[in-house]
Description:
Strand content: 25-35%
Number of helices: 3
Oligomer: single chain
Radius of gyration: 15 Å
Order of helices and strands: HEEHEEEEEEH
Structural class: alpha+beta
Distance between the termini: 49 Å
Mean pLDDT: 89
CATH superfamily: Protein of unknown function DUF192
Amino acid sequence: MKRLLLALLLASASLHAQQPSLPAVQLGAGMHLIRAEVADRDATRSLGLMHRTSLPPNGGMLFVFDESGAHCMWMKNTLLPLSVAFLDEAGAIVNIADMQPLSEATHCAARPARYALEMTQGWFAERGIRAGMRLRGLEQLKPR
Length: 144
């Protein structure tokens, strides 16, 4: 049993070590501040929050897409329950979806979105943040 536990811990540490160190941006949603890691390349968007076992309080990941579109997210290899807010070019929330761990079900933007912000499941609802509200701080992102 001890060997199995040790093997699981080592495997988890190895997977976490594979996560690249990503730049972060501070966003604002109403009076709430968010520290979001920025996934703005195919490789970092594909990996996303896979294999993570926790997120810091008010921490999440901002997916920056090359262009606005009907982008979709899934939870393959993602261990945490998450909520995703799809955002348009101006940072307005298009829609929010709750996503279950390890699911391959897709969750898509209701209309063209340029960004997707993943947070711990329920984060948006607990703070009264909903579709139509605008997030601050996207102007800090460097164009590619």
